[in-house]
Amino acid sequence: MATLTVHDDGKYLAIQTHSKTTRFHAIWLRDNAWDSETRAVGNGQRLLALRDIPANTAIATATIEGEKVTLTFAPEGKSVDYPLGWLMENAYDMVGETDIGWTSTFVETWGGDLMSDIPVADFAAVSTNDRALKGWLEKVARYGFGKLENGPVQDLALMQVVDLFGFVRETNYGRHFEVRTEVNPSNLAFTGLGLQAHTDNPYRDPVPSLQVLYCLESSAAGGENMVVDGFRAAERLRNENSEWFDVLSQYCARYEYVGEEGNVLRSRRPMIELSPDGELIGIRFNNRSLAAVTDVPFDKMDTYYAAYRRLGEIIDDPEMEVTFRLKPGESFVVDNTRVLHARKAYSGTGTRWLQGCYADKDGLLSKLAGLQARTLEAAE
Ligand code: FE2
To answer: How far is the CA of 247 from the centre of ligand 1 (A)?
Structure first.
């Protein structure tokens, strides 16, 4: 049973449940009222701006009846009901200091250990069954990548992958791009080289947050796909040397792509991006498109390069990588704000043909949240 007390001349409410006290400010409660004058019935959009709520808002009375909390606010003389459960779910009275570089509880970082449990699903299952799609999208959100097997071997089948969760992000490379590799003895020395793991298009702002790669042909030996968790790499760097982590997250790098047809794409963003409260939210790592870094003070540049070198070594560490071969009809989706990708070296002759495109993570997370809400409703 919860009890309510009002403190500081109505400036905040305290809800006592068992041995725990949770406080809420009057202005926060008033702004988050769910009555039909404050929020639109149906879409829930707020109908008031903060300027419509008096700055001296205070709680005049507070009562509880079962699970219903009723407050009246002065000077408006307005009465509002709140479900106790909603208040407790949205409580903020326990937010404390967090480690710099923290990650959401919905994110799990990984290394090579994930090889034995690659997030994978069947193309037909996720295309026809919401439960299978929800399960796969949950893994993509948690691990930052996911593979699909047994899809059609068909031109532009990758668009069917994007249709599962969102929309193509068109760029100057088109709605999609072709990745064709002929591997033969005369050019083996060149194409046999693998690429260092990277995130794509760091010179765009905003960066494309998802990439889809779809395999249509694969007869050359080798050429496996490889992914590395950039969040795990950043955590390792932080644990080894916090000064190196700080210099890569506190100073911007610059990225640039100058292509044909007048494309001049530039961004100024850090290699390790944090939210203002220290959450790890993005990795940009791409040796080919790093421009001259000019935003690091002279006396920090040596440290910056040492940190950049070490981050690259961590990314190159075989213990960090998960590799898999894409057969025709197989594809993978990668969170381009977090997980780096690369192609391993070839060891034989043949051809490889992939199609790729970009999409955005907000669409994928929206699709996932919608499926999760429907599952909850079905369970009620
Ligand atoms: Fe790439």
So the answer is: 25
- Ligand 1 centroid to Cα of residue 182, in Å, is 18
Is the pLDDT at 188 greater than 90? The verdict is: no
Long-range contact pairs involving 167-172 (C-beta distance under 8 Å, separation at least 24): 167/359, 167/360, 167/363, 168/357, 168/358, 168/359, 169/208, 169/210, 169/357, 169/358, 169/359, 169/360, 171/201, 171/204, 171/208, 171/358, 172/259, 172/261, 172/263, 172/265
User: Both 198 and 323 in a single domain?
Assistant: yes
CA of 341 to the centre of ligand 1 (A): 6
From the CA of 297, how far away is ligand 1's center (Å)?
30
Q: Which residues fall within 8 angstroms of residue 161, CB to CB, at 6 or more apart?
A: 123, 148, 151, 212, 214, 331, 333
CB atoms within 10 A of CB 377: 8
- Report DSSP state, residue 116: G
The tens digit of pLDDT for each residue in 213-235 reads 999 999 888 888 999 999 999 99
Q: Are 204 and 347 in the same domain? A: yes
C-beta neighbour count of 162 within 10 angstroms: 23
The values of phi and psi at residue 169, to 5°, are -100, 105
CA distance 40 to 35: 8
What's the 228 CA to ligand 1 centre distance in angstroms? 12
- pLDDT (0 to 100) of residue 185: 56
Q: 284 and 205, same structural domain? A: yes
Question: Cα(356) to centroid of ligand 1, in Å?
Answer: 9
Residue 259 CA to ligand 1 center (angstroms) comes to 16
Give the CATH number of the domain where residue 301 resides.
Answer: 3.60.130.10
**Residue 377: which pLDDT band, with cuts at 50, 70 and 90?**
confident
Residue 341 domain boundaries: 112-371
Residue 353 CA, ligand 1 centroid: distance in Å: 14
For the segment 118-159, what is each residue's pLDDT rounded down to a tens digit? 999 999 999 999 999 999 999 999 999 999 999 999 999 999
